[in-house]
Amino acid sequence: MLAGAVCKGGNALDALLLGLSTVAETAAAELGRKASEDDIARHAVKLNVFHTINFMLQHSEPIRQKVKTGDLVIQGGVYDLGSGRVQFLGESPAQSKLLKSPMAAAPSLKDKLLGA
């Protein structure tokens, strides 16, 4: 699996790629065995947008408070390099659930790399 190779590499890019591999695996599982690589990649990009929004909502108290009070709205989007267009995805489907849950401490880069 990619995780073993990433942990031995030990740099920030490796940790970020490890996170993306989880998103890609989720995308593949959600679309099923008949999905093409292109379909999986497109779906993984969208999932990663929501994964990033969810991370901010889980680990940043200032962002959580601004969203709760309505002073901040977080909308996901995907920029198409070829057309220059943005596909807006809206708020994370998990937003209300995340805002009701306790804030979690952000994982450290070291923990990600060591698999802790």
Total beta strand runs: 2
Approximate shape: globular
Query: Which strand order do you get reading across the main beta sheet?
Result: 1-2
Strand content: 5-15%
Number of helices: 6
Helical/strand content category:
mainly alpha
Radius of gyration: 16 Å
Reading the helices and strands in chain order gives: HHHHEEHH
Structure description:
Reversible hydration of carbon dioxide. Belongs to the beta-class carbonic anhydrase family. This is Carbonic anhydrase. The protein is mostly helical. It has one domain. The chain has 6 helices and 2 strands, in the order ααααββαα. The chain has helices spanning 2-9, 12-31, 37-59, 61-69, 95-100, 109-114, and strands at residues 76-79, 86-90. The chain has a two-stranded antiparallel ribbon with strand order 1-2. A hairpin with a 6-residue loop joins strand 1 and strand 2 (86-90). The longest helix is centred in the middle third of the chain and has 23 residues, at 37-59. The model is unreliable at 1-8 (pLDDT under 50).
